[in-house]
């Protein structure tokens, strides 16, 4: 398997990037009446933007990609469609990253059609310009080459999924047993990512609880693949 290019994002960076993003919006002269977070990735940046921009009104919308097994293409859906009245209001729609941009575009169009705002502008921490279908109105960092950003709000989920990838891949080549230290060393080699002791422990516990690994004395054995 081709190794995934990753970059760890710290809480401090999230705050610094959100402050920088808020300043870009402020400098442009746009004064949102309400901030809308795109769930789930937009929650933390949206809350920080409210703080840095002194905006009291915050709501959210969940938009996500849906992969249909039968089709190669992916489609985005609004998970919990609901209506609110934002008649005449200016909206700042916030997400962590524009990758393909599809789920964000869907959220924007849904809000324009159903919530009646006068304007919707999009702000993200990062914009992958080589992958995205559109350019957000505001972004703090332009990413030219695709990379997986390991944000603090998906640290356990990502660690768990990355471990699974590593285990299944090594399992294909006949490996079945690891010590705790070998699991962590393997992870760091595979993904060039150190998420810290607590996350490694939690993810390995989850792998055991979910029946992917079995612990026998000091060895972890691959059960499911
Ligand atoms: P879109 O590109 O339309 O936002 P995606 O399905 O590509 O839709 O992304 C949805 C969410 O998945 C993002 O908001 C983010 O939380 C996560 N995500 C996508 N790409 C990346 C990436 N390269 N690094 C980290 N998280 C990502």
Question: Can you describe this structure?
Answer:
The chain is elongated. The strands form three sheets. A six-stranded mixed β-sheet has the order 4-3-2-5-6-7. The protein has a three-stranded antiparallel β-sheet with strand order 9-11-10. The protein is of the alpha/beta class. The chain starts with 5 loop residues before the first strand and ends with a strand. The longest helix has 18 residues, at 11-28. The chain has helices at 11-28, 43-53, 102-114, 155-172, 180-191, 197-209, and strands at 6-8, 34-39, 58-67, 74-78, 90-98, 119-128, 138-143, 148-150, 177-179, 213-216, 219-222. It has two domains: 6-150, Rossmann fold (3-Layer(aba) Sandwich), CATH 3.40.50; 152-222, Winged helix-like DNA-binding domain superfamily/Winged helix DNA-binding domain (Arc Repressor Mutant, subunit A, Orthogonal Bundle), CATH 1.10.10. The structure holds adenosine-5'-diphosphate (ADP).
